[in-house]
Amino acid sequence: VPLQAFGGGLVQAGGSLSLSCVASGSSFRFYTMGWYRQAPGKQRERVAVITRGGSTNYENSVEGRFTISRDNAKNTVYLQMNSLKPEDTAVYYCNAYTLSMDYWGKGTQVTVSS
Which pLDDT tens digit goes with each residue over 56-83? Predict the structure, then answer.
């Protein structure tokens, strides 16, 4: 399942960015989709997940600031990031998951300046 993430960039603290990730194929609606991030020197961490049924879950530090959503007709998952902080700086990765597969896209850099 090729995944392509878009939307990273440089933003000042307090600003917003929107990430999107497009999946190939016809089974997108069956995937649990997630956004993960990895900051320099740190382990990759889960940021937000949305299930095939639309249930969402967020990492504590982004709760209330980030919103994950999906559009099954467009095979796309989104991450709206508001009130960005310097500690949100990381490479953000898109993930597609089912019990039988686990795919990762190439990351997109998000840099938040103070």
Answer: 999 999 999 999 999 999 999 999 999 9
